């Protein structure tokens, strides 16, 4: 029996991992395998999802839509050979991935027969400025979507959801737009009845790849000082498109803290106990090409390491 695919796309920091985590934690008896693609040498997203399901497959060091096309197809093939097979496959793309190229790959007749692309979900931060939707990448992410999920409504401010919906309509996006408070989306929208035929898709002509972002990773074998980390992020914030990581704080020993920076906002959340032999801090910084240097990150982050 074919295994339907749910493709989750959306720009950097939109909240894709939160949505996927909610799906996995509320699977309602479904066997769901998740393929997680992160942009950078440290695949933080896969670690953040790994606690919710044992079906996570991590693809790192590139985009599914370009350098990892072969890996994606091999991964799908491996998942389909599992016994028992998953009921659904969720693919979470990198925030810099053009989903039109991924859709094009998934339209391969062999894949379509074994794992049809059922639904494309675009996750969008409700606080996204309307002008940002004119960006070619964000426009592509919206236009291939069947469903657009507005996230972070509690942080976006009054009226932001309405303005974002109007901006989506102005782009002539045919997708259904839903609110996704805390990453919650009705499962009936994402996992429709099995007798429904998959949508016919026309992703359009292949566009040349554009290298626009770069990731800079930083690690430490020692815990960090929370006040110093806050100072460092404050200095780096104007240059960052996104940052995320896991670290142990000297103020809270014995437990990792999950760090996220997106849309100009930094958040901290409790994580799991650190694993033996793993660095006490692992953070990925994402910025436009040439905006931020490794030397600058190393200098600022070195000051965060707790001495003694």
Short summary:
The protein is built from eleven helices and twelve strands.
Give an overview in words.
The protein is an alpha/beta fold and 308 residues long. It folds into 2 domains: 5-190, P-loop containing nucleotide triphosphate hydrolases (Rossmann fold, 3-Layer(aba) Sandwich), CATH 3.40.50; 213-302, CobW-like, C-terminal domain (Hypothetical Protein Yjia, Chain: A,domain 2, 2-Layer Sandwich), CATH 3.30.1220. Helix content is 29%, strand content 26%. It is built from 11 helices and 12 strands. The chain has a 7-stranded parallel β-sheet, with helices on both faces. It has a 5-stranded antiparallel β-sheet with strand order 8-12-9-10-11, covered by helices on one side. α2 links the parallel β2 (32-37) and β3. It is globular and about 60 Å long. The model has no long low-confidence stretch (mean pLDDT 85).
CATH class (first level) name of the largest domain: Alpha Beta
The helicity comes to 25-40%
Q: How many distinct domains?
A: 2
> How far apart lie the N and C ends?
59 Å
Radius of gyration: 19 Å
The CATH architecture term of the largest domain is: 3-Layer(aba) Sandwich
Largest sheet properties: 7 strands, parallel
Which band does the percent of strand residues land in? Answer: 25-35%
Give me the CATH fold name of the largest domain: Rossmann fold
Q: Can you count the beta strands? A: 12
Order of strands side by side in the largest beta sheet? 3-2-4-1-5-6-7
Report the order of strands and helices: EHEHEHEHHEHEHHEHEHEEEEH
- The CATH superfamily label of the largest domain reads P-loop containing nucleotide triphosphate hydrolases
User: Given the structure, what is the number of helices?
Assistant: 11
Mean pLDDT across the residues is 85
**Class from helix and strand fractions:** alpha/beta
């Amino acid at each position: 029996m074919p295994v339907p695919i749910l493709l989750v796309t959306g720009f950097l920091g939109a909240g894709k991992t939160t949505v996927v985590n909610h799906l996995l934690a509320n699977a309602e008896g479904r066997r769901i395998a998740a393929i997680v693609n992160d942009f950078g040498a440290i695949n933080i997203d896969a670690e953040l999802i790994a606690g919710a399901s044992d079906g996570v497959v991590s693809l790192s060091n590139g985009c599914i839509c370009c350098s990892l096309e072969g890996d994606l197809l091999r991964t799908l093939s491996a998942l389909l050979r599992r016994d028992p097979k998953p009921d659904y496959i969720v693919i979470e793309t990198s925030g810099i991935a053009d989903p039109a190229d991924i859709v094009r790959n998934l339209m391969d007749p062999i894949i379509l027969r074994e794992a049809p692309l059922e639904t494309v979900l675009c996750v969008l931060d409700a606080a996204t400025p309307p002008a940002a939707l004119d960006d070619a990448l964000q426009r592509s992410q919206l236009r291939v979507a069947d469903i657009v999920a507005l996230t972070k409504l509690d942080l976006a401010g009054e009226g932001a959801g309405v303005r974002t919906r109007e901006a989506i309509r102005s782009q002539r996006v045919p997708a259904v737009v839903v609110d996704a408070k805390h990453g919650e989306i009705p499962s009936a929208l994402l996992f429709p009845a099995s007798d429904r035929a998959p949508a016919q898709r026309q992703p359009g002509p292949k566009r040349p790849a554009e290298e626009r972002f770069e990731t800079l990773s930083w690690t430490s074998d020692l815990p960090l000082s929370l006040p110093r980390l806050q100072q460092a992020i404050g200095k780096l914030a104007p240059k960052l498109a996104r940052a995320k990581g896991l670290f142990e704080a000297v103020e809270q020993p014995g437990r990792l803290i999950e760090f996220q920076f997106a849309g100009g906002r930094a958040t901290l959340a409790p994580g799991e106990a650190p694993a033996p032999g793993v660095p006490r801090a692992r953070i990925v910084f994402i910025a436009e090409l040439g905006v931020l240097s490794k030397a600058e990150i190393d200098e600022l982050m070195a000051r965060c390491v707790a001495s003694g």
